[in-house]
Design brief:
This protein has 337 residues and is mainly β. It has helices at 82-88, 313-323; strands at residues 5-8, 14-17, 29-32, 34-38, 44-48, 61-64, 66-70, 76-80, 91-94, 96-101, 105-113, 119-132, 138-143, 149-153, 158-160, 166-173, 180-187, 190-195, 198-202, 210-214, 219-220, 224-231, 240-253, 257-263, 269-280, 285-292, 297-306, 329-331. A hairpin with a 2-residue loop joins β18 and β19 (198-202).
């Protein structure tokens, strides 16, 4: 009895190989005109569009279950479950590009051709959350129906754009034109600091999408905060070094605390909030011992700010601080001045 085997052609179309073996002979191969789709559980299926012969034993929809991953060339790959390997092989790799990265989604543009041999693109969406791995690489965790996650790992190094935003770029050859193109992903989020040796980039407060980078100890100055991080890549023996310098300004906000304002472009400003124990110095400055805002935990970071940069609520705080003489007072939501 002849065994049917499914394959993928160079244009991301499903092909029936009626011989049961890998073959390039046209009499054994039939291209199924259709498109891949993902459902709400991030499961993949191929939907056949073209009319099929009445005697063809081919379903209109072929479901594919397995483990998602990302190839070194940034193609979307699914390693198939054991039950599907007899007819599909070990894995299916969809060629295309990562189109966009939202707070809880990854959009992947699949390149194909129509029956008239014209280039065409459609989009697959995977839902999940963005995180970092132990090597400070960017990863996307695809949520499965059983609650488990498959991990897509970006094989390259990220960088910081002109507007303090996290940026990831990679190069690859276009499937149709064969020209090398540069693809750029800009992650829209806000920087946050909860520890002196960890800098986080939060995509949204209402999701688990947070890039928590392991870093060296941060440097805190009047007009910037600087961290250094290393990105470990499989393609390199030595890690890629990144210096993250966030330019901004400090101010005190009543009933909130000590705030560092970061500009993200298009007049959008983000706030990194700290608690702090404050006291006056002999140098006409204020010394702040920074604290984790959520936990009121000492961060082991000292910051000195001159009086003249503390405007508005800061001037009120200075008057209260001066009235306490040598005593330090807490700047934060737990104490109102």
């Amino acid at each position: 009895m002849q065994k049917t085997r499914y394959e993928l052609d160079p244009y991301n179309r499903l092909v029936i190989n009626a011989s049961g073996d890998e073959s390039d002979l046209p009499e054994f191969r039939q291209v199924l005109d259709g498109r891949f789709r993902t459902d709400e559980n991030n499961e993949l299926s191929y939907h056949v569009k073209a009319p099929l012969p009445e005697d063809a034993n081919i379903p209109n929809q072929v479901r594919l279950k397995g483990i998602w991953s990302l190839s070194d060339d940034h193609d979307l790959t699914i390693t198939l479950d054991k039950s599907a390997r007899e007819t599909f092989g070990d894995k299916i790799t969809l060629q295309g590009e990562i189109l966009d990265a939202d707070k809880n989604t990854l959009l992947f543009a699949v390149t194909t051709v129509t029956k008239e041999n014209k280039g065409s693109i459609y989009v697959l969406q995977l839902s999940g959350s963005w995180k970092t791995d132990e090597n400070n690489r960017l990863t996307f965790h695809v949520i499965k129906k059983d609650g488990a996650s498959d991990i897509l790992t970006m094989s390259g190094a990220w960088d910081i754009g002109d507007n303090n935003q996290l940026v990831y770029q990679y190069k690859k050859s276009d499937l149709i034109t064969k020209e090398t193109q540069t693809h750029t992903l800009i992650f829209k989020g806000n920087w946050d600091i909860n520890d002196k040796a960890c800098l986080s980039y939060v995509l949204s407060g209402d999701t688990d999408s947070v890039f928590a980078f392991k870093t060296g100890v941060g440097i805190f100055k009047e007009d910037y905060i600087r961290y250094e991080a290393e990105i470990g890549l499989v393609s390199r023996a030595d890690p890629v070094e990144r210096v993250i310098t966030l330019s901004g300004r400090w101010y005190l906000k009543k009933d909130v605390g000590l705030v560092f304002a970061v500009q993200y472009g298009n007049e959008r400003t983000g706030a990194i909030v700290f608690g702090a124990d404050a006291k006056l110095t002999d140098n006409d400055t204020v010394s702040f011992a920074l604290k984790n805002y959520a936990e009121n935990r000492d961060m082991g970071v000292e910051l000195e700010l001159s009086h003249d940069i503390l405007e508005g609520d800061g001037q009120l705080f200075l008057r209260v601080l001066a009235s306490k003489r040598e005593q330090a007072i807490y700047a934060g939501a737990a104490w109102r001045w």
